[in-house]
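chain below, 73 aa
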Amino acid sequence: MVSAWNDFLFAFVLISSDAKKVLPTGLATYGQSNNDYTALFAMATLTTVPIVILFMIFQRYLVGGLAAGSVKA
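prediction:
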């Protein structure tokens, strides 16, 4: 989890162009400059839903890979 926070922090600090920002840094910037919480929560939901769907699709492969790596041959 710490490495994911560092990825956000580096992108947040180093990318100044709005066209090059990734979704989490764009949401953070939008949240700082705007008080429209309805739009902010809608954008956060639209950012999160595809990731959750992909996780649900590939969960069996992730769990299978983790279990296969734990078996001592």
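Residues 2-70 form one domain. The chain has a mean pLDDT of 82.
thats it, cya
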